[in-house]
């Protein structure tokens, strides 16, 4: 096979061109010569096939052939090419089949030669390999006097790279199938014929990194324990304010997925969780799923060096994903608990974390949430509602919120003077310019707290304690949705109530001996005996005060609002009819319409409450569970089956579908998967369970496929040589009988199929 120049005629180089020394410079072209001699072009066959992972073909059998050929070439390169890792993606196989010698005096000679040339290309390292395979060499130089050359001649810049095997020009050239080549196998030789740069040993990089991580495994495990548990599906991830989507994901893989990591952390580690297009948590340890980040992505250099690159080395460039996940484990959402939500909205209406709803129209600054040991504090400031003429009314809305946890910076969010936008302060520093110019999903990180712009008038704040706040402005009123982790049950107090799953004790005033008010108390009683008692002291204020403002500016202790029951009782039929056009029978919406006279304010109250209730219901719906054997050992021609089990904590009916293609010989009915494999084509098995309410869970089954053809024993624990290793599919080895080994060799000599015969 020549490069850079064509043969002078269609019959190729004749024996007169075979010289004692193979050379490229003198001939003017490069060549690969698995056996350069004078063949009879009228006999035998010469054919080739190209296997390219970027163009695998559409048929399943074509894809399988490409996979097998590439896998075989990779295995040969790794085993005998002088490298420990390769990313071969292109292979060309050329076969000279049953070639007779060109005879001038005795054309009756029937001896033939069969041999192959395989060219394998690794684009990642710019390396090219040539493999010479001498299968059945029948010529005999005693009665066929013939010059022959085996080797290669290449031109590299100004230098010539040549190599010829010792049997060249000797009778033993036609007996190479009986000699052990440099590959360690009979008749097989492998050469690296081109390289574009210095070799990079990615396997060594991976294993060296792994060894260093194992030296500090106690520290690594300590940081694992500080990370959160992954939401069980994308639906929950989208609504859990403790997490942020990774906008720089997926450069390692083309697999479509969405990944998240913890929004705020005081430590250096965080958990990554990744979800499939169906919304299920990816839990296969093949590089597609998430991992523990020893360094948070905000420590970009360290994160890239110790978390991102090692995954690339171990999972994408070598087959060491198992080692990687030993020190960067993924989370499987076992024990996940969603945030519990409560919200403050409208003319202020409150829904506590336990689901109790009431209205409180105080004017001033109040404690909304305070944990028992000071881990988290949320405060709210109210202002009077303006009428259409800009005059104050006796209705109030929230105008500012301020919050911090024990170790974090304090974040203060208020309405702008126009009451149509947000002004943001962190540790009393105005950062509103960032918010105004930022794109949606842009974020800023501060000490133990992160701030994310979700809309032009909405912001999400996440604290390392697990609390999250979503603050927005609509119709000149500020609302906040609080997400609280279940770990704080029994440890909160304030206007948000006592977080303990019991709505009857939420109206607990401050004080060690305080007794909760009845949850049937009137709004007037709630105002005087509960709400006003949570008016905060000056020394406790977290708020930002503009020049000329102070705590006293907002301490309107003499203010008496209009109460819900009085407003509703005194509405005229026409007023109620007008309100119901916007509100239906929602009393909070009707109240806001009556006291503000603003349809948009009442509508905002209705929408906010309805949306938050829907979200709370979604969060309370647990994802289904699906149980199945994660490894499926199957044999070609034999019947195999898998049985799936499902359950749901909410008692919802769970439906399971097969996400992957059903291969020939397989069925899936009533949660039972049966399969009698008919070939060694690649098969993926993936199930998706759904509860009909948005909750999903997936199960990927790893297939170990064996085909000993009844002539050996399957070794399901050992992958077969020459096949690309995958987490979810692999061909396994056979312990073949000695008699069958000989039969296979004879078959190979006739079929030249080096890729498809495992036993």
From TrEMBL:
Keyword Disulfide bond: yes
GO biological process, one term: cell-matrix adhesion
Protein's cellular compartments: Membrane
One GO cellular component term: membrane
Domain called VWFD: residue spans: 340-542
Principal location: membrane
Keywords: Disulfide bond, Membrane, Transmembrane, Transmembrane helix
Domain AMOP: from-to ranges: 198-328
Top-level taxon of origin: Eukaryota
PANTHER family membership: MUCIN 4-RELATED (PTHR13802), MUCIN-4 (PTHR13802:SF52)
Name under which the protein is recorded: Uncharacterized protein
Organism (species): Ridgeia piscesae
């Amino acid at each position: 096979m020549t490069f850079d120049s064509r043969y002078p005629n269609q019959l190729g180089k004749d024996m007169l061109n075979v010289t004692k020394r193979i050379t490229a410079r003198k001939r003017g072209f490069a060549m690969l010569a698995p056996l350069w001699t004078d063949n009879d072009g009228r006999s035998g066959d010469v054919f080739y096939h190209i296997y390219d992972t970027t163009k695998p073909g559409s048929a399943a059998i074509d894809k399988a052939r490409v996979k097998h050929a590439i896998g075989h070439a990779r295995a040969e390169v790794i085993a005998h090419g002088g490298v420990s890792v390769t990313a071969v993606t292109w292979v060309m196989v050329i076969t000279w089949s049953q070639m007779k010698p060109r005879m001038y005096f005795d054309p009756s000679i029937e001896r033939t030669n069969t041999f192959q040339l395989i060219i394998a290309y690794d684009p990642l390292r710019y390396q090219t390999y040539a493999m010479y395979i001498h299968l059945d060499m029948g010529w005999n130089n005693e009665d066929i006097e013939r010059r022959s050359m085996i080797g290669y001649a290449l031109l590299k810049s100004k230098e010539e790279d040549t190599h010829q095997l010792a049997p060249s020009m000797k009778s033993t050239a036609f007996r190479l199938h009986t000699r052990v080549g440099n590959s360690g196998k009979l008749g097989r030789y492998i050469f690296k014929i081109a390289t574009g740069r210095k070799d990079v040993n990615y396997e060594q990089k991976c294993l060296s990194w792994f060894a260093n991580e194992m030296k500090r495994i106690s520290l690594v495990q300590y940081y694992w324990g500080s990370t959160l548990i992954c939401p069980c599906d994308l639906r929950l991830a989208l609504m859990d304010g403790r997490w942020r989507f990774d906008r720089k994901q997926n450069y390692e893989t083309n697999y479509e997925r969405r990944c998240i990591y913890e929004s705020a952390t005081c430590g250096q580690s965080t958990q990554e969780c990744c979800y499939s297009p169906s919304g299920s948590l990816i839990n296969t340890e093949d590089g597609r799923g998430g991992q523990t980040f020893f360094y948070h992505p905000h420590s970009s250099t360290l994160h890239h060096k110790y978390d991102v690159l090692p995954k690339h080395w171990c999972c994408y460039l070598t087959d060491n994903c198992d080692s990687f996940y030993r020190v960067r484990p993924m989370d499987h959402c076992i024990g996940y608990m969603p945030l519990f939500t409560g919200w403050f909205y409208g003319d202020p209406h409150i829904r506590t974390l336990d689901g109790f709803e009431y209205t409180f129209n105080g004017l001033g600054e109040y404690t909304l949430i305070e944990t028992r040991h000071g881990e988290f504090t949320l405060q709210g400031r109210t202002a009077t509602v303006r009428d259409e003429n800009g005059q104050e009314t006796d209705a109030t809305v929230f105008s500012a919120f301020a919050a911090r946890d024990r170790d974090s910076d304090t974040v203060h969010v208020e309405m702008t003077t126009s009451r149509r936008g947000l002004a943001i302060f962190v540790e009393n520093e105005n950062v509103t310019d960032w918010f105004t110019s930022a794109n949606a999903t842009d974020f800023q990180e501060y000490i133990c707290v992160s701030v994310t712009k979700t809309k032009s008038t909405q912001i999400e704040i996440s604290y390392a304690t697990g609390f999250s706040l979503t603050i927005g402005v609509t119709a000149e009123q500020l609302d906040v949705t609080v997400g609280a982790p279940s770990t704080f049950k029994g440890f909160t107090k304030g206007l948000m109530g006592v977080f303990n799953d019991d709505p009857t004790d939420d109206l607990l005033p401050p004080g060690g001996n305080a007794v909760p008010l009845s949850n049937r108390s009137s709004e007037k009683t709630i105002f005087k005996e509960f709400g006003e008692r949570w008016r905060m002291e000056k020394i406790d204020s977290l708020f930002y005060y503009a020049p000329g403002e102070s705590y006293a500016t907002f301490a309107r202790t003499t203010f008496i609002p209009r109460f819900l029951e009085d407003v509703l009782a005194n509405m005229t039929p026409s007023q109620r009819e007008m309100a119901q056009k916007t509100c239906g029978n929602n009393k909070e919406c009707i109240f806001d319409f009556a006291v503000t006279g603003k349809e948009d304010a009442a509508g905002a109250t209705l929408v906010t409450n309805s949306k938050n209730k829907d979200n709370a219901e979604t969060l309370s719906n647990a994802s289904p569970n699906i149980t199945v054997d994660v490894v499926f050992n199957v044999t070609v021609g034999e019947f195999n089956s898998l049985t799936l089990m499902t359950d749901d904590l909410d008692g919802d009916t769970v439906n399971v579908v097969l996400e992957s293609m059903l291969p020939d010989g397989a069925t899936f009915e009533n949660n039972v998967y049966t399969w009698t494999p008919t070939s060694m084509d690649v098969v993926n098995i993936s199930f998706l369970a759904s509860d009909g309410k948005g909750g999903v869970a997936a199960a990927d089954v790893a297939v170990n496929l064996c085909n000993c053809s009844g002539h050996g024993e399957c070794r399901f624990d050992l992958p077969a040589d020459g096949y690309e290793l995958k987490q979810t599919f692999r061909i396994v080895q056979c312990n073949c009988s000695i008699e069958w080994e000989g039969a296979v060799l004879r078959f190979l000599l006739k079929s030249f199929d080096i890729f498809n015969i495992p036993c």
